[in-house]
Amino acid sequence: VTDNAWRLAQGGLIDRSRPLGFTFDGVRHRGFYGDSLASALLASGVRIVGRSFKLHRPRGLLGSWTEEPNAIVQIGSGAHTVPNLKATQVELIEGLEARSVNCWPNAAFDALAPLQLLAPLLPAGFYYKTFKWPSWQWYEPLVRRMAGLGVAPTFPDPDRYTERHASCDVLVVGGGPSGIAAALAAGRAGARVLLAEDRPVLGGAVRSETEHIDGQDCASWVEATEHELRGLDNVHVLTRCTAFGYYDHQLVALRELRPPGAAAGCRERLWQVRARQVLLATGAIERPMVFPDNDLPGIMLASAAVNYAVQYAVRPGRRAVVVTATDSGYAAALALQSRGIAIAAVVDVRPGAVTAAESFAGTPVLQGCAPVRARGHRAVESLEVRRLSADGQSWDAAATTRHLECDLVCVSGGWTPTVHLYSQSGGGLRYAPDLAAFVPAATRCAARCSGAAAGRLLLADCLADGFAVGRRAAEATGATGNCGAAPRSDASSTAGVSAFWASPRHGRRPEWVDFHNDVTRADIELAVHENLTSAEHVKRYTTCGMAVDQGKTSNMNALALLAGLTDREIASVGTTTFRPPYEPVTLGALAGRRVGLRYRPLRRTPLDRWHAEHGGQLEDFGGWLRPAWYRGPGIDRVAAIVREKRAARTGVTLFDGSPLGKIEVRGPDAAQFLNRMYVNDMSRLRCGRARYGIMLNEHGVVIDDGVCMRLAEDHFLVSTTSAGAASTFAGFEAWLQCEWPDLRVLVTNVTSAWVNIAVAGPRARDLVGRIALEFDVSREAFPHLAVRTGVLGGVPARIARVSFTGELSYELSVPSGYGLSLWEALLAAGTELGVTPIGVDALQQLRTEKGYLHVGTDTDGRTMPQDIGMAGSVAGKADDFIGRRSLDREDAQREDRLQFVGISAADPGVVLPVGAHLTSRPRPPCSSEGYVTSSCASEALGRGVALGLARAGRARLGETVRVYSLGHSWPARIVAPSWYDPAGERLNA
Amino acid sequence: VTSRPGPPERVSDETWAAYLFYRDNPKGLVREHWWHASGCRQWFIVVRDTLTQEIQATYPIGDATSELAK
To answer: Is cis: bond before A260, omega within 30 of 0?
Structure first.
């Protein structure tokens, strides 16, 4: 266990009475309650916290919160592991296990570190350029393994996630000084306020401020104000809650984390908040500077160094050099010095920032100087600095280079307002030269920005601005209560900054722009050299600003370098597009409770229990849990299907067809409406009769089929495929409401209201006759495609003679609640007939034998009526129907269309595999002439039978082809798709 | 909002192709069919600004008053 050698003796917001043990890369360390993983590592003297994405360079902490690009860790193990967290955002808990993600065996000693020597082979876009022999594909798996981030868990996520939908008057994103002031004003005014802060505590940057607010130190002011806010009934404060996406109509998505160590509750909660006013107080992120070897551990953002010292009481170094382009760099130097960190020098790239310099005593201030390079082995040991020329564009030729010994370099290159959410909301950005950053422009946009996010960097301005904007937002929602006085800071700091991005080019050492993605200044120069000049192109080519980091520290420097290289103003280069999420969000949070069966609930038939209790092997068929086959003593799947098929061909079977879509169509214009929906003529369908019909979309493509029954003059019942019920019903509604509101038709989806039991087989009439006493089921009175309604066992019933097996078949329907009674009555009545329940597998093979097509299996997204032998129905119909005009399109008239056929293997013992291709030659290379869509062995016919789609198939009946699949090839013939009982004698029996 | 051309024998290939395949993607106001899928299943007209996502008006299909006012 390492000691806290780098911990300051006092101060900080940590609880020293609560020590916590944790491991990093397998080594045990100690920290305190209130630490982040990063601060605890720093306190333990761990300088190398990660390895860079591409070159495995040793990296230390650059930031202290969301801006951290280097310390990417994987937390926990097994199913609970979470990859790609920033160590700066991981709250320390007892027993925490953390590993650096891109190294082996650990970050301190990484076996892949020699990759740095290969840097010349790995420039931007290297995968287009190097590793070409024998092919990139040969290297890709290796390169991908060497580069990268954490490892996704392979087990199902055992944690629970939840979601919440909420609305409010004013949503304040960001609980720093500006956000707190805004929530205070809006809350006092009486608006319903939601304040969301992504850190564990409110305060933001104010936590490391040394200034005063309303006469109190900052931490006390935050506490007092939070107390007031939480006391207001109309204000809700959320911490550990990150707003990551801004969507239409002020919908903001936030992700709330459960406090670490909390035993109960969900791990994460997704909030979807609809706010009347959105106020973005998202702060600003400090920028690094670009100079050679600026990624050495020990070089960090000045704000981060101060944050570690003030909030966590950690000494980020013993002897610091502060390199600054801002006045805030001086405040940082003072804050560090007051905590016992020696300041070797303040290096100010500006030649004449006198005001700030005067207020800083005791330490050399090198004005107009910039870093030449950093030196050090595995950590910074010194910084070389040199005077710039008068225009700041090159080195002063007369000046000499100074070596500054240090173990910490604090960099303050400027402040970049966090405008991600504002930009996502549709807000425009404007380049502000005085801030050297993009700030929200006044555009028509529902979101308001305040504080540092709006470019107001000083504490006093943040408070005043936040309070004013909060009050205005509340007023806009009609809340006009007394806001009281705004909080005030009397600090006299200044916010000067000059645009400085990179030291003058010097030597060939790498100068890092994007630490997270290992992008250097040379990569951006290369991109420009190769004529990529748009910010979006350069981003994609170099990967600058991508992934976990989203360019939080790299964006502005990259844009500025790009502007300089292309002789443009930064304003005209513009930014890349900001898209959600602002921070990585776990898939668990997005999925919430919609996982497993809750993601896609399976539908069950009224007979579900019976099937399960009688060996029915339930499987998912188009969202319905249905028996595929019935297991019996010593009967496996193959034997069961053979048995069930034989029963259908020789005896009598029951099939639970309840999932079949059923749509009632009623009204005086019902016949006319259905006539427009179906290819087949439904207007002349007689009462008590049923007709098979196919439905097209407007492109003329077959989308569904089924039987349409006319129960009365103005009453139809349409059946659809099981999977097509919802879409067919929705389609009916859409046509009726949008296109033909004049038609007097009412449609109702009654799919689940009726059970549907198909009684099929040569002895079906015998069985139905025993049950349906009120119906005359004789051949003469009840022919094929007749439909009768009546009473069965005292309940309303409907019987239709339709068949999907090719056998004599009756479909019996009763209200769902009576389904089981009917099923059991049929079984009891049919015992001596050998009645056999059959599953979906047998049914599919029976219909394949018969040559009946299944829409979606034997048709594809191009199949038209003429391709399935229904050209006659089209020609014979006088009226228009959906898709009709498309059947006259040139493409529909082509002679080489894929058409529905039977495929007969020359060897009757062969069952052709589904998906096998029809070819003209025994094996490829050759073009495909179509493919097998359904296939099975037919015991009734003593041979294999297959259906398929063949190019120009209907004109090629009798032709010999080859059928090819996975190295095998069989001779076969194209035949008519009617294998079993082509004359239909059994059907009409 | 597009209307179905017809009857089929009087619709040219060009008109039918425009109905099937060609859509304007204007910046600004568009009239669209929307469907209350999880509720009452009503189809209705929404006038939406594609730039700001602002909903300018909603009204029932065939509401002549609203059509004229637009």
So the answer is: no
Mean pLDDT of A419-439: 93
> Is the Cβ–Cβ distance between A90 and A240 less than 8 Å?
no
A852-891 pLDDT, tens per residue?
999 999 999 999 999 999 999 999 999 999 999 999 999 9
* Euclidean distance between CA atoms A52 and A64, whole angstroms: 18
Neighbouring-strand partners of residue A621: A624
Q: What are the beta bridge partners of residue A962?
A: A919, A971
Residue with tokens 């160094």: A305
**Given an 8 Å threshold on Cβ–Cβ distance, is B20 in contact with A884?**
no
Q: What is the ipTM score, two decimals?
A: 0.95
CB contact under 8 A, A741 and B6: no
Nearest CA to CA, how far is B30 from chain A (Å)? 16
Q: Contacts of residue A885 in chain B, CB cutoff 8 Å?
A: 5-6, 8, 11, 16
Dump pLDDT digits (tens) for A717-753.
999 999 899 999 999 999 999 999 999 999 999 999 9
CB contacts of A748 in chain B (<8 Å) are none
Please name the residues in contact with A929: beta carbons below 8 A apart, sequence gap of 6 or more.
Answer: A917, A918, A919, A920, A950, A951, A961
3-state secondary structure of A870: coil
Question: pTM of the full predicted structure?
Answer: 0.87
| Cβ atoms A422, A451 nearer than 8 A | no
How many angstroms separate the CA atoms of A966 and A917, rounded? Answer: 10
Residue type, A9: A
Q: Which is it for strands A960-965 and A917-919: parallel, antiparallel or unpaired? A: antiparallel
Length of chain B: 70
CB atoms within 10 A of CB A686: 10
DSSP annotation of A207 reads: G
A51-to-A109, A296, A341, A353, A789 alpha-carbon distances in Å: 10, 11, 27, 37, 76
Query: Cβ of A734 and B43 within 8 Å?
Result: yes
Distance CA A88, CA A314 (A): 13
